Amino acid sequence: MLLNHLLQHYKVILGSQSPRRKQLLSSMDIEFEQRVKDVNEDILPIWETKEVAQKLAERKALAQQQELKENDTDFLNEILITSDTIVVIEDKILNKPQNIIEAREMLRLLSGKKHLVITGVCICTKSKLYSFLDETEVFFKELSQNEIDYYIQKYKPFDKAGSYGAQEWLGMIGVERINGSYFNVMGLPVQKLYEEWVNFLT
């Protein structure tokens, strides 16, 4: 079943300010608007590392769920997509770097090693909520200090978990290979989202 056909009775809301998620959802030929609410992103100690992104995606959805419109004469049913992406290496979560020093430390840690990129996604209507996660293995070459400093200075990756964007210069020259979805590394596993979204609506 074609997702676009299933969505003809819905107004799609993207609960994210990420320009990469906006780009990827647009590339799926889906019309949507962005609507974001501030959410506490503190990680609860009872959460397993691999479920953090999924739990945060659910929290973001729950923050807006009661505001979604359903069966109103003036509105289509609204369906919300929220997401969160984390970078994990040696069971340690790398968040967004706060400054140049943190960015350098993260990229040194990733250099020459394998890490995981895990994205949690939540699909939500006013009466129903479903979430899933996807993970990708990313293998970095050994990065020189000059390469790290050049990337940080030019691209300023302070809005990116793990301090890098796979679609940017460092991803192009530093990522040797990946196992899993490349788009997941960008922040939205669009192939899996498509399949899960169709299942959600049928």
UniProtKB/TrEMBL annotation:
Pfam families recorded: Maf (PF02545)
Entry protein name: dTTP/UTP pyrophosphatase
UniProt xrefs under Gene3D superfamilies: 3.90.950.10
Naturally occurring in which organism (per UniProt): Bernardetia litoralis (strain ATCC 23117 / DSM 6794 / NBRC 15988 / NCIMB 1366 / Fx l1 / Sio-4) (Flexibacter litoralis)
Site (Important for substrate specificity): 20, 85, 167
Domain of life: Bacteria
GO cellular component, one term: cytoplasm
Similarity field: Belongs to the Maf family. YhdE subfamily.
InterPro entries reported in the protein's UniProt record: ITPase-like_fam, Maf-like
Location of the active site: 84 (proton acceptor)
Catalytic reaction annotation: dTTP + H2O = dTMP + diphosphate + H(+); UTP + H2O = UMP + diphosphate + H(+)
Cofactor(s) needed by this chain: a divalent metal cation
Stated role: Nucleoside triphosphate pyrophosphatase that hydrolyzes dTTP and UTP. May have a dual role in cell division arrest and in preventing the incorporation of modified nucleotides into cellular nucleic acids.
Compartments where located: Cytoplasm
CDD domains: Maf
Location, primary (coarse class): cytoplasm
Record-level GO BP terms: nucleotide metabolic process
A Gene Ontology molecular function term of the record: dTTP diphosphatase activity
Keywords assigned by UniProt, alphabetized: Cytoplasm, Hydrolase, Nucleotide metabolism
Enzyme Commission code(s) on record: 3.6.1.9
HAMAP family: Maf (MF_00528)
